[in-house]
Write a structure and sequence with these properties.
The structure holds 2 protein chains of 2 kinds. Chain A is mainly alpha-helical. Chain A folds into 2 domains: about 1-190, no CATH class; about 225-455, Orthogonal Bundle (MetI-like fold). Chain A is built from 15 helices and 2 strands. Chain A has helices at about 1-30, 40-75, 85-100, 110-150, 155-195, 200-205, 225-260, 260-275, 280-300, 310-335, 340-345, 350-380, 385-390, 405-415, 425-455, and strands spanning about 205-210, 225. The longest helix of chain A has about 40 residues, at about 155-195. The two termini of chain A are about 55 Å apart. The mean pLDDT of chain A is about 85. Chain B is of the alpha/beta class. Chain B has a domain at about 5-110 and about 180-260: 3-Layer(aba) Sandwich (Rossmann fold), CATH 3.40.50. Chain B has helices spanning about 55-65, 95-100, 115-125, 130-145, 150, 165-175, 195-205, 220-225, 245-250, 255-260; strands at about 15-25, 30-40, 45-50, 75-80, 85, 100-105, 180-185, 210-215, 230-235, 235-245. In chain B, strands 6-7-8-3-9-10 form a 6-stranded mixed beta sheet, with helices on both faces. The longest helix of chain B has 14 residues, at about 130-145. Chain B is globular, with a radius of gyration of 18 Å. Mean pLDDT of chain B is about 90; it is low at about 1-15. The interface of A and B includes residues 342, 357 and 456 of A. Bound molecules: adenosine-5'-diphosphate and magnesium ion. Magnesium ion (MG) binds next to α1 of chain B. Adenosine-5'-diphosphate binds near residues 32 and 57 of chain B.
Chain lengths: ~450, ~260
Amino acid sequence: MTGIAFAMLLTAALAGYMMNRRAALALRDGGQRLHSLGMFHGMYAALAVLVPAIIVTLLWLALQSSVIDAIIMSGLPDGATENVDTGMVQLIKSEIHSIARGRVFGTPEPWKIEAAERLNALQAMAGWLLLAVVALISAAALFVTRRSVASEFRARQAVERIIYGLLIACSLFAIFVTVGIVLSLVFESIRFFQMVPITEFLFGTSWEPQIPIRADQIAAEGAFGWIPVLLGTLVITFVAITISVPVGLMSAIYLNEFASPGFRGIAKPLLEILAGIPTVVYGFFAILTVAPAIRAWGAALGIPVAPNTALAAGGVMAIMLIPFISSFADDALSAVPRSLRDGSMALGATRSETVLKVLFPAAIPGIVGGVLLAISRAIGETMIVVMAAGLIAKMTINPLDSVTTVTVQIVTLLIGDTAFDSPKTLAAFALGLMLFIVTLMINIVALRVVRKYRELYD
Amino acid sequence: MYDMNRVENAVGQDEIKISARNVQVWYGETHAIKDVDVDILDKTVTAFIGPSGCGKSTFLRCINRMNDSIPSARIEGEIRLDGEDIYDRSIDPVQLRARVGMVFQKPNPFPKSIYDNVSYGPRIHGLARNRAELDEIVERSLRDAALWNEVKDRLQEPGTGLSGGQQQRLCIARAIATSPEMLLMDEPCSALDPIATGQVEELIDHLRQDFSVVIVTHSMQQAARVSQKTAFFHLGSLVEYGETDEIFTKPQDPRTESYISGRIG
Ligand SMILES: Nc1ncnc2c1ncn2[C@@H]1O[C@H](COP(=O)(O)OP(=O)(O)O)[C@@H](O)[C@H]1O
Ligand SMILES: [Mg+2]
């Protein structure tokens, strides 16, 4: 039914375009001077048909199922939904839906079959109703716009305004979605903090989110102090950054200043390929290659090494970040005006003196911005640590020990059978919120730094 | 051995600083400098004039080997500084550039303090043994560049915060801080307003006491005001070279004449 509605809409829009254009051209051929080209009159009609009808259709489709459900549920016989909890109501609802789709299990009560029939009827009716509404809107739009065609009608500006509105709507959409995501995080976190005090979460040093399945189980209390988890994240991020920043910077300096154009032509695309490797592949690499190598070294040196070291996870994350930092630093170095390079060379500086004393300081703000963005990527990185880091939260800063991270904990908390009303699950949202706040702050600082540096040479 | 004969129109007792013979420059296939022979004198301002793209900058960059960093550039012929072939294998271009300073068209101070801008060269080349000596070099260079009085109270402020004319004089101070023997200036006033231009021109005239100065300029008036010798380039060739007065009053070559009278360029 929706398919037909959309086909109808498109036809109406096309018809409106043709009709108005022809009408406008007829005016012109009749000797009048048109304010706007015929094309704009046509586009005005097409947009006037499409935009309102599409908005109505989308809203309709978004609301249709919940409205129908409400009607069905309220129409159930007395007693069917009383004295049962919300989970049971959900079950009844989905059973009715299954029956309506022709999948009957066992012998359902007659009132359920009746409800399913009503559901089908309502849905069919809703479809026809939608079709009628769309037809009505299109017809009205066609009628109104057809009458607007006149030599002095400013169709061009009208089209401009509609497009302007569309652009605003799209950007608002992105903003609303972001705000919605943040709000849902905040609300779920508030629910969590009603069960676990926020001070315990922020300052607690023990993270054991295991919640008993049966009430009589021992260890009935979970512990939700995020400090060890945060510490694990920081250890891995630190390892990743201390490896990737020097390597990335030096490779950028080499590529930018010393490499022959031929080498640069090969090396840059290769680095970009490195940046495009899915993180899950880096995860394999960490498990299969880096972790065993670190264990072997540890054994050879007689140092105790955990199976899932922070070093392995951080080291592989560093490999992921090297192309990122390198390309950021490369851009920052290339953005330093050539005149500074020439100025330094003309004073008798060597290339490396020029890089170290002039180009690098001039590019520092851009590079710092890149490093900050890399840090926030490292903190938020999930797949590598899920595969390569540990699960147990420990208060340690030893990179040869096994640590867990915020992202790993979020994933493990939400995997498997979860109910969205236990602290165990809600803790994931609180962790997510903290992660969001931390990376947001880093990103804001980074963007400021980068912007400041852009201003320096403009 | 190279003999130090002077060309006919050289000025009396002046020493030859740069002697170029048969210089050719190619950028890939483009023949940018063709067969240039010229002797540039010490303690003299020499102006290079000519229409855009005739190779003035290219020839200037040959003198301090700044063309080395352009991959497509290829240079032939001989350029001697005080009788020494600067393209000889034994010459280190980095050391050469400390001896032959350069000032660019657009002022290009480093994004550092005024002090660090001027002390950049002396630090690299180890010209000062301690901070006091460095301070002295900085002050002397800024004084020579006629900038000292304007900046002496804000040496630690960024050089990029100065006005265009001050920035250009800062770049001149930076260049003379390494105690070069000559100074190459590629249209040093083209980004400056008339007042700043006047200050820089005055400075150039003053610098002549210590250096050999070569200045590329688009302005015939400027060439006439500041230079003693003028070289006219056209399509990569050196058409005419001589006393500035004579070039401007009685040019020998018809191309020089039409350029000066504004018919080509
Ligand atoms: N880096 C370069 N690569 C290729 N060609 C160049 C380069 N620099 C200058 N040229 C060419 O060499 C010629 C002389 O240029 P230039 O010396 O800049 O002239 P001028 O300074 O007299 O205006 C021009 O034709 C120019 O296009
Ligand atoms: Mg030039």
